[in-house]
Each structure stands twice: as C-alpha cells, then as structure tokens.
Amino acid sequence: MTTSPIPTPEVAEKVFGDRTGLAVRYVEHLATSGIERGLIGPRERDRLWDRHVLNCAVLGEVVPADARVADVGSGAGLPGIPLALARPDLRIVLIEPLARRVEWLDEVLGDLGLDIVVERGRAEEKPVLRRWEGADVVTARAVGPLARLAGICLPLLRQGGAMLVLKGASAPDEIARDAAAVRALGGGEPRIHETGAGVVDPLTTVVEIPRTGAPRRNRRKERR
Fold first, then answer.
1. Residue-wise DSSP of 146-199
2. Does this model's pTM top 0.85?
3. Which positions bind S-adenosyl-L-methionine (predicted)?
4. Which residue ranges are tagged as binding site for S-adenosyl-L-methionine?
C-alpha cells in the first residue's frame, strides 16, 4: 500500500534555509522506516513537521554558537537531528542505548550526509560519560522528569554549561516539584523559554538548567 507524500510547510525554509531538502528527506525517513521499525507511532505521521521536526528545530534559538551538544535518549534523532539541520555550526552527538534505534540513526545520517556521532549507550554509564563529558549543552526530549534528567544530563556538562529540556505546559509545576533535587545535583536556577514564534503553535517550551556545581555527595567526598 502506498501513502501520499507529506506536504512541506512553507515555514520549513525559514528554519532550515538551504538545508530544507535534507529536512524533507529526514521527515520521509521518519514517515516510512521510522514508523515501520517502531521509532515513531503511526498516528504521528501527519504531525511529523509541526509536533516533532519543527518543534525540535526551534530549540536552536537558545543554543549558543559553535556549542558541543549531547542529545540524551535520542531515539529517532529528536531533537538532535532537526537541531543539526537548523544549526550547522553545532557539534552534536546522539546518545541512545537501543541497538535497533542506533542502527536506524546510522542509516539516516549516512543518507543525509550529516557529520553527527551516534553513541550507543546510556549517558550515565562511565565509558559514555568519559567520552562526552564537558559538553556545552545537553538536550533531552520525552526522557523523564526533571529530577531524573538532572542526574543524567548535568554530569555531561562543563561548569557553566546548560541542559535544555523540551517540556510541555506543566513545566512550571515540574520545576517547583523537583527544585530541591536539581540543586542537590549541581543545577542552578531553572529558566523557561518559549521558542518558535511564527513557526510552531503552540510554542516549544524549553527548560534551561545551568550546571553551577558538583552534586552534593561529590562535594562531601572532596572535603574528606
């Protein structure tokens, strides 16, 4: 059974510029093999542009120039691949533990010709942490609550770097609930950004948490 092509929104060129063609091919991968191999739900096919690709790409509005970025729990390359397409100045690694997803990511990146590293493993595993610590930015989407994410993402960051987490409308409540845990893990004051004005509706909600210190348990060890 054949399926109709997914229309490319006019706003895509505003976000991706001369890489719009690559973004279109990425969406085609998501809509075909991504669904067939279980990386994307079939009901998401008609929402791939607005709910997934553009929604993730506008994260680039709050990422510093020339940053080293680690995308944790990348799955189908979200947000890492749209971010790379929108911001070719960034150096990105996609960290993903599941072999079938890593295989798909390697295939897609090979087809798109993007210079992105795919790391199979969990960000909290020591070998992965040793290879990728010192990042300027760590991104995550639909991975878990802020307290858990802080424990995974903050150790990958350099001091002064920031985790940028895509969240929904409940972000303020989640920040309030997990504030103490985030501070204990070395996180600073959270900040909420709304990105994608004129591109996505609703806007993309991004929670920024800087790394301002080491986890408290590590500081106790250092004093001994």
1. HHHHHHHHGGGEEEEEEEEEEE-TTHHHHHHHHHHHHHHTTB---EEEEE-TTT
2. yes
3. 73, 78, 123-124, 141
4. 73, 78, 123-124, 141
